[in-house]
Amino acid sequence: MSASLAVASPSVLLQQLESMCNEVQTPECRHWLEQELQGYAPDAQLPWYRIVPCRQRGHFLDLNTGRYLTCHIGSQTLCQRDLANVQFIYARAPAAHYLLHPSSGIEPWPVDLKKQYQALLIPGHLCLQAWHEPVSSLRMRLMEGIEHFISEYPKHAALQPQHSFKALQHSHWHI
User: What is the maximal distance between C-alpha atoms in the chain?
Assistant: First the structure.
């Protein structure tokens, strides 16, 4: 999907969202645009491009030598419930937050989770910091996803006026 799209600049993409918000007629699309511009509520369902897979990394102290080590944390070291809390970044902030102020996307683990696994992740090592980072660029994923919706929505609206937005939301899984 991403190879076929020519991604616009972040500011142009935001202008398109704002312009489209003033023009669109369907309530579903307007709601999506408002969420993109204002951010998603904590309990709102996110579009596929706002759920970003992550890898786990940590900074460790070797208790025998006193040396420091930064390395990958394997998913098998965490129980499934805890892994579910850190294996994805759920990008809920307004699109402008990610598009105009790019960052690495690195987020620390919750303090309680780090404390729980601090001495268990690598035998003989103490975890000083643990974080999750996106496997791919959070900014690029968001730009590609928004641009995909913007470019595909008119086609779906013309073909299926009653269910156009729902069809578009689910089309990613069928590509």
Answer: 67
Question: So where are the chain's domains?
Answer: 7-170
Q: Which ranges of 77-137 would DSSP assign to H, the alpha helix?
A: 80-86, 95-99, 111-117
Give 24-57 pLDDT, tens digit per residue.
778 888 898 999 999 999 999 999 999 999 999 9
Q: Which residues pair with 56 in a beta bridge?
A: 132
| pTM strictly above 0.85 | no
Interatomic CA distance for residues 73 and 96, integer angstroms: 31
Which is it for the CA torsion 85, 88, 92, 98, positive or negative?
A: positive
The span from the CA of 120 to the CA of 74, in Å, is 12
Q: In sequence order, what are the beta bridge partners of 52?
A: 89
Least confidently predicted of 37-41, 63-67, 158-162: 158-162
Secondary structure E strands in 3-161: 51-62, 68-72, 88-90, 107-108, 125-134
Contact between 109 and 131 under an 8 Å Cβ cutoff? The reply is: yes
